[in-house]
Write a structure and sequence with these properties.
about 190 residues; mainly alpha; two-stranded antiparallel ribbon
Amino acid sequence: MISWIALAVAALIVVALIVLYNRLVRSRQMVDEGWSGIDVQLKRRADLLPNLVSAVKGYAAHEKQVLERVAALRTQAAELPEDDVSGRGRIESRLSVAIGRLMALAEAYPDLKASDIFLELQQALSAVEDDIQMARRYYNGAARNLNVLVESFPSNLVAGLFGFRQRDFFEVGASDRDVPAVDFDGGAS
């Protein structure tokens, strides 16, 4: 009788471990899927930037500093390791600010604002930025769920046993939340 009880308890423990392990695997896969979504949208944005810079360059040649900043940040973002979430978040948020400055420059150039190519690029970039925000929210929610499992008892025991780890959030830095200041006489600051 006692051996049946011990066997039943052992079976329950094994089932609980399997359930917890599977929840951790599912959560990890959701985080990976979320990061893949962010990565796809960031690639779409990076592919749009050379065209946008070219369109602006013809109208705002003396705004060289802003154009070079966008190009440099795009290069930095491309060179970061794919799994460097926090580093990628910092660079991408700086790039968003630089893109905001670039778009603000268009206000000073009515011919540029009226250009069909620029308008199409601006709309495409706006759609990509919205998609990045949605992908970021999905990723951060999935990372939160995984992090809760990795930290919570008893799933933390299974997570530690099988090497599951917490994931960084894809965050915008505090300084990057500021609206870019643009001085049309002296360039962007």
